Amino acid sequence: MSVALVATIGFFDGVHCGHQFVLENVVSIAASKHLTPAVVVFKDHPQRVLYGRSIPLLTTYDERLQLLKAFGVEQILTFSFEKICHLTAEEFMRLLHDEHDVSVLVMGYDHHFGSNHPDSFERYQESADRVGIELVRLPRNPISKASSTAIRKAISLGNIEEANDMLGYHFTLTGKVVSGKQIGRKIGFPTANLLIPEEKIVPMDGVYICETDDRKALLNIGSNPTLNGTERTIELHIPDFSGDLYGKTLSVQLLHYLRSEQLFDNLDALQHQIAQDVEQIKHNISAE
């Protein structure tokens, strides 16, 4: 026998502080009614489907699911937006109620859904009443004005601390370690080249202080102009680490933007700068 759901609807890119406010309410309402907290998510971004726009994402689909579960969601209903975008708000609510046991639907203060674009909460309420769903409208989030768009802008400008404040956690890049030119190894600072999913947003070029597996590290994003590089790479240097990382998947939490990528006169100058960057990591650790 299935358990009725308290659900909310969205794409949830980043599962940021604004999303978390909604999720906290979903979990709380579900607990008060002895129901299961759930979310309705779209695997494809609505902007891509409706307008053909390619949106760099804060989180991959798998990352979104992990975050949603971490914030208390017990059941996730995934839909292809392309397949349901023609449904009116009432038709979608009926689908959720009749086929997925959604008995309570929680809406954010300014959330809208449905091909008919109802212009008021009262219109949604009328449809919900006909379907048999209890509709709950949340107030504005009193603490955070975070939005996925604002976080993407902050990340694209290298404003990592601002992005992290809106996310409520550290922005993370996860990728497989692939082979590179091994120049870093030759100058005493070996790096792991990360292959990041194509849909994932990557911060602007530069050097960042980051953390991976509880170890502070440096992340360089750019084309390595001192080495006559032409392709953009994402390279991780973990001080005092020895071991083989090839083929492994690493998650890197970005903490601070350190400096822009530079063209140095020679490898010695580059080596000197990286040594200074490593000292910045040690200073960052001691300051915590």
How would you summarize this macromolecular structure in one to three sentences?
It is built from 10 helices and 11 strands. With 288 residues, the chain is of the alpha/beta class.
What general outline do the C-alpha atoms trace? elongated
Compute the number of strand runs: 11
Walk across the major sheet and give the strand order: 6-7-10-9-8-11
Spans of at least 5 consecutive residues whose pLDDT stays below 50 are none
Order of helices and strands: EHEHHEHHEHEHHEHEEEEEH
> Residue share in helices?
25-40%
Q: How much β-strand is present in the residues? A: 15-25%
Structural class: alpha/beta
- N→C terminal distance: 51 Å
Q: Rg from C-alpha positions?
A: 23 Å
Q: How many H/I helical runs?
A: 10
Tell me, rounded to a whole number, the average pLDDT.
Answer: 91
Largest sheet: 6 strands, antiparallel, barrel
